[in-house]
Amino acid sequence: MPELFPDFLILAIASFVAGLIDAVVGGGGLIQIPALFSMLPNTAPATIFGTNKLAGIFGTSAAAINFAKRVKLAWSAALPAAGAAFLLSFLGAYVVTHIPTEAIRKSLPFILLAVAIYTVKKKDFGSIHAPLHTGSKEKLLAVLIGGGIGFYDGVFGPGTGSFLIFLFVRFFGFDFLAASAVSKVINVATNLAALLWFGYSGHIIWQLGLIMAICNVAGSLVGTRLALKHGSGFVRKLFLLVVSVLILKTGYDAFLK
Predict the structure, then answer these.
(1) 239 burial type by CB count under 10 A (0-12 exposed, 13-18 middle, 19+ buried)
(2) 45-70 and 5-25 are packed helices; what angle lies between their axes, rounded to 10 degrees?
(3) pTM, two decimal places
(4) How far, in Å, CA of 53 to CA of 237, rounded?
């Protein structure tokens, strides 16, 4: 057991940092999943992803609750989007076993690059919270975005939180802080759908996942506090940093790995 302590410590630290980053702009999987693969090289990928989801859903839920206490969360958009995301992420998980995902893998770096360029060029993007829609139009758009991103998360996954933030800023007129808060509610739904599937199929290391969950929640609480303290400007900068890392990571995976 003592020789395993360094591995557990590394995973605990990685989970804390992942929770912090994910609470603000998404992308926690960039840290947590590679750490799990590194520390558990002989473990099946599905078990890695299942354990990651177990740890992540606690941190995401903690962030969603913390945001809801401090930010006026747009539940009228968040709940329809979360419901659609939950259902479509199940469908995505089913579809991924029947179709090749190589086209998605190769196009992802370019989509993320377009997101980064758009955000950089529009200096005031996400700085002002001015909701654009209400009523049935808001709900329909929320269902379309939540369902689309939920399906993507089920099929592939990288950058889900960042895509949600970008889309809610771009199409709903939210600032980065409000968009981040809504994205956490939707992320809880997509994570829950995936977790039910992985749990049913036996692809979760429960003890490790729960230990990592504690660290993920701690990081999530710190990340939420930072976002609330420093506002949309801070979230925007961290968003661009995470998207930049995602571009490099997905580009390497698609074309060089």
Answers:
(1) buried
(2) 50
(3) 0.88
(4) 26
